[in-house]
Specification:
alpha+beta, PH-domain like, Arc Repressor Mutant, subunit A, 3 domains, 7-stranded antiparallel beta sheet, about 30% strand, PH_domain, WH_DNA-bd_sf
């Protein structure tokens, strides 16, 4: 009997020989993880057996990369994967851990809602707490803060986090709140932004979250960026990133010049209505942006100039107000419907 496929999607993977990171199509089954160079490939580029394996998340082996998790096989081979946002990483980690546990117990895979933490009680759900903190109306407010001739956008102070946890009765006192905040940082939900908070995160064997008005942090999948004092033109450009993140994840995009298809990480923001796309393997500035105000988005079955071997369904098209056409491909039909719905909403309501 063929192993059950549990989860599939795009992740960024570190090469085993070279220090390069590339987007790959990943399929998790009951007994292993297969990864493909392209989603349309019939045979995997590599296979990772899960019997006797361990999983580490968050993996902090790479200073400049967040949302990384590590699978170590029974033969002590390390495989590093990077997700595009926190929720995506949590889903992969949860299912891979469950697959490893089921293999060890000789059981068939079945999802179980569990979350372990070295420091926190079993009843604490950090993922749910993180979602509450990000709530636009009642969560921790993201601000633009200046410090040491730098401007930190979409961030907040450590003291603000501690105050919020106490005010929402998530903790009885500051030591308890500090323990929760440290757990959120250790799990990769919160990231240190400034020099002071980074020193705390990297000091000693145990990373420390700082209850300090000068220690800056940000949500791992927010629109955070840091800049020096800039000109008026730079400020206008950064306005594109001011909106709330509505949806994010990897899609396959057709290039405008060579008409080739490549995996890109997309971040959809409202007010102003923009979708930015990035090389998922790099933590650089966006490769481009699409202004969605007045745009039209529809599902399509055919793309002009596309080779059949490059695509296999789940296509949709964005036509901007200036009649520029963008062709994109989602991993599943459900994902395509979600992206179309989100883009339609932003194109109507955003500026």
């Amino acid at each position: 009997m063929e192993p059950q496929e549990i989860r599939e999607g795009f992740l960024v993977k570190k090469g085993t020989l070279l220090n390069s990171w590339r987007a790959v199509w990943v399929v998790l089954s009951e007994d292993g993880v297969d990864f493909y160079k392209k989603k349309t490939d019939s045979s995997p580029k590599g296979m990772i057996p899960l019997k006797g394996a361990t999983l580490s998340s968050p993996c902090q082996d790479f200073v400049k990369r967040t949302l990384v998790f590590k699978i170590t096989t029974e033969k002590k081979q390390d495989h590093f994967f990077q997700a595009s946002h926190v929720e995506e990483r949590e889903l992969w980690v949860k299912d891979i851990k469950r697959a490893i546990t089921c293999l060890a117990g000789g059981k068939k895979f079945a999802r179980k809602s569990t979350r372990r933490s070295i420091r926190l009680p079993e009843t604490v759900n950090l993922a749910a707490l993180y979602t509450e903190m990000k709530n636009q109306d009642d969560g921790v407010k993201e601000l633009k803060l200046e410090q040491q001739n730098r401007v930190f956008n979409h961030c907040f102070t450590g003291a603000t986090v501690v105050d919020w946890l106490i005010s929402k009765e998530k903790a009885r006192n500051r030591p308890e709140a500090l323990m929760l905040a440290t757990g959120l940082m250790n799990e990769g939900f919160l990231q240190p932004a400034g020099d002071l908070s980074k020193e705390g995160a990297e000091s000693g064997e145990q990373a420390a979250f700082l209850d300090d008005t000068k220690a800056l942090y940000y949500f791992a999948d927010s629109g955070f960026f840091c800049e020096g004092y800039s000109s008026d033109e730079d400020v206008l450009l950064k306005e594109e990133f001011r909106g709330n993140i509505i949806k994010q994840g990897c899609l396959v995009k057709q290039g405008h010049r060579r008409k080739n298809w490549k995996v890109r990480k997309f971040i959809l923001r409202d007010d102003p209505a923009y979708i930015h796309y990035y090389d998922p393997a790099k933590a650089d500035d966006p490769l481009g942006s699409i202004h969605l105000r007045g745009a039209v988005v529809t599902a399509v079955d055919y793309v002009p100039d596309a080779k059949k071997k490059d695509i296999d369904g789940n296509l949709f098209e964005i036509i901007t107000a200036d009649e520029t056409h963008y062709f994109l491909q989602a991993a599943t039909d459900q994902e395509r419907r979600e992206w179309i719905k989100a883009v339609q909403m932003v194109s109507k309501s955003g500026k």
